[in-house]
Amino acid sequence: MIVQLIVLFLFNLNGSSSLPVEIFEVKRPDGKIEIFTTNKEYRPYTLEINWQLKNIDAPTKKFFLVPGSAKSYSLMVLHPKSKAYSYSYHFTCIPGDIVGAKHNDAVTYKFPFKEGFQTKVSQGYNGGYSHRGVMAIDFVANEGTPVCAARAGIVVETESNNKGGCASPKCMKMANFVKVLHDDGTEALYSHLKHKGVIVEIGQFVQVGQVLAYSGNTGWTTNPHLHFEVLVPDYKGGKSVQTHFMSNGKRKLLTKGDEVK
């Protein structure tokens, strides 16, 4: 039996090179081979698996979802058709559920600040400065302003160690941030946070309105603000989508210049 494993991992925002998902195989007493996985993270991952098989029935699927924190999770069973068989495979490990995740457009998001905080939108969806092709909202917020969860979910990624920023894309990876996984498989990104300003932990469930962090001026930024974006997982790290907020008693999409509280 020949087994070859080639791994391609799409790096996450904090630059970590450790692979969260591991695969192992068990030969069963009935001669079949069961493929298992483990997932070290709270975020689910999609595996795209490509096979080279000899005398084994081919799996009917190409994409397989590994749930967050999965331990010895059975992906599939291979069925050899004779005693002389071989198989090899390589897989791509993609953050999130790229097949099943779909944004629930009926959700109304809470402003990501404490009740009564007044601010305005400095850049809206597909904005001309740093939001070209990006469905994100920038809220003006002085450094140290409490940033709250706009929607409930599980914290799946944080960065809080960066100190600097600049008005150039070269500083993009210097942003501190929190990512929260929602029940529809999407993730909210809260970015440009203060150095050491994240107060939640990975794996923690957060309620709507709960303080996640404190705003800052890290990353690609010209002034202190909060960047809020909701992403549907895909091959490129996520496709951003528009989100509705409640403003002055009406559910609406925010635009540049809107004053909110």
Key attributes of the depicted protein:
disordered N terminus, 261 residues, 4-stranded mixed sheet, Immunoglobulin-like, Glucose Permease (Domain IIA), 23 strands, 11-stranded antiparallel sheet, mainly beta
Number of discrete helical segments: 0
Estimated helix fraction = under 10%
CATH homologous superfamily placement of the largest domain:
Glucose Permease (Domain IIA)
Tally of distinct domains: 2
Beta content comes to over 45%
For the record, the CATH architecture of the largest domain stands as: Distorted Sandwich
Q: Radius of gyration, rounded?
A: 21 Å
Indicate the structural class.
mainly beta
Q: Provide the CATH topology of the largest domain.
A: Glucose Permease (Domain IIA)
Oligomeric state of the chains in view = single chain
